Amino acid sequence: MDYSQTITMEPGKRSGKPCIRGLRMTVGDVLGYLASGMTHAEILRDFPYLTEEDIRACLAFAADRERKSETVAA
């Protein structure tokens, strides 16, 4: 998925964290909701300005970051 038009980073917004479409909702916020057990439907109900595509973009962004992260040997 190409999330480049959905996930934005602006230095003055949420300390430069990756946000959804320039809103103040961060990728981390959405991932946290999912990790806490919220369903996509619950997130969309609580935040009606988000879309299913926004949630998938957050997941794709996180997966891409994980693939690119370096492993540090202990």
Features:
74 residues, mainly alpha, Arc Repressor Mutant, subunit A, two-stranded antiparallel ribbon, 3 helices, 45% helix
Question: How is this structure best summarized?
Answer:
This protein has 74 residues and is mostly helical. The protein has helices at residues 27-35, 40-46, 52-68; strands spanning 7-8, 19-20.
Fold blueprint:
Elements: E1 7-8, E2 19-20, H1 27-35, H2 40-46, H3 52-68
Antiparallel strand pairs: 1-2
Task: Kindly describe this structure.
With 74 residues, the chain is mainly alpha-helical. It has a single domain (7-68), classed as Arc Repressor Mutant, subunit A (Orthogonal Bundle), CATH 1.10.10. Helices cover 45% and strands 5% of the residues. A two-stranded antiparallel ribbon has the order 1-2. The longest helix is centred in the C-terminal third of the chain and has 17 residues, at 52-68.
General shape:
globular
Helix content: 40-55%
User: Judging by the overall fold, what is the CATH architecture?
Assistant: Orthogonal Bundle
Query: What is CATH's topology name?
Result: Arc Repressor Mutant, subunit A
Strand residue percentage: 5-15%
What's the structural domain tally? 1
Order of helices and strands: EEHHH
The CA-CA distance between the termini, in Å, is 33 Å
Number of helices: 3
Report the count of strand segments.
2
Q: What is the class in the CATH system?
A: Mainly Alpha
